[in-house]
Design the sequence.
């Protein structure tokens, strides 16, 4: 297991802010030589601490005008029901995140759609038709004061 020391934490913090930061700038920010910094980044990648790099997209520019968190309760609490549900939602472009959670329901989804009408079609024609689904509760996002997902 890789030790995450103070310098590795600094490297990770800087890469979270800007995953395209050139190695020379990253090295300067964390107080290392470029070669030492690159070795550390490669080690973090090799050990799976850094799983990848992503582009952060502007939802409005992408035509996404509706975002909701949706809780889903299943009618059957078996492994087969969970696996079937997960396979189904993995195929839906509207579902940006799917989390198996504890509590009164089994899943929390982050759903993006063009607008309310498109979300209603997703809710009724896709999510609502899955045989495992017993309960759907939608929480519409009205604004996001903090969002650090990349």
Sequence:
């Amino acid at each position: 297991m890789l030790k995450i020391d103070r310098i590795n934490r600094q490297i990770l913090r800087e890469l979270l802010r800007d995953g395209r930061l050139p190695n020379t700038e990253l090295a300067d920010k964390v107080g290392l030589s470029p070669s030492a910094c690159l070795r550390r980044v490669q080690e973090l990648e090799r050990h799976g601490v850094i799983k990848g790099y992503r582009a952060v997209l502007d939802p409005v520019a992408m035509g996404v005008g509706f975002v909701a968190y949706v809780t889903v309760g299943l009618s059957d609490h078996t492994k087969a029901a969970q696996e079937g549900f997960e396979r189904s939602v993995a195929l839906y472009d509207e579902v940006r995140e799917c989390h198996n959670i504890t509590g009164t329901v089994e899943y929390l989804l982050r759903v993006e759609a063009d607008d309310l009408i498109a979300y209603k079609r997703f809710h009724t024609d896709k999510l609502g038709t899955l045989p495992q689904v017993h309960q759907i509760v939608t929480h519409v996002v009205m604004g996001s004061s903090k969002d650090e997902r990349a």
The chain has a mean pLDDT of 95. The longest strand covers residues 66-74.
